[in-house]
Amino acid sequence: MADGDAALPRWGVLTEPMTVFTNLVLAGLAFVLTARLAYHSAAIGSAAAASLAAGLLATAFAAVLGAVAHGTDPAVDAPLRARFWRAALYATGLIGVATISCVAFFAARGATRTAILVFACLKLVVFIVNVARRPEFRVAAADYGGALAILLGGAAFAAVRWSAPGMAWLIAGVLMSLVGGIVQARRIGLHRHFNHNDLFHVLQMVALYLLYRGGVLLVDR
Fold this sequence. Notes:
Layout: E1 10-11, E2 14-15, H1 17-44, H2 47-71, H3 74-107, H4 110-133, H5 137-162, H6 167-185, H7 196-216
Antiparallel strand pairs: 1-2
Helix pairs in contact: 1-2, 1-7, 2-3, 2-7, 3-4, 3-5, 5-6, 6-7
């Protein structure tokens, strides 16, 4: 995170103001979608939808923590910036475990469901250890990417096996997240003041909405 700190865009004492703004908008959207999906899941008794809502909530927290990290001037308080960055990465791990748990409830049952849930928990433990050793975005991206791959596979399976509702929305959400990941990895930005992080956040907003639409249609196996 220290690379290029001197050249970071600033607005007064706030660094990376556009990244902070897009992070907060992303967080606000995630909170709204969480509330709506959580209410819906409680009404219909869907653990799959509830798990996806938990993933949206973790996304909201990760976005808020990321906003604080990006907005903290490393020249003023580098340790604080690093602490919030690490916290944002840990929150990303919670997104992964919630996403995989969602798959366990809409695409599996019995021993298979239990195995998927155990795997999700073990994956979270491994992720926490990795982040503790290397608090880097690529570690979180790899973990989240793996969870999305499982979601994509589960959604495709459920669509073919049972013609389960909502799967097309989930697949579209995963693909949009993939586009966002490519933008992030290749550092594709529109302007110095609207960089790859900002564009990634906008694409994630679209992905979250698509996932939410799929979540509303989820039913447990």
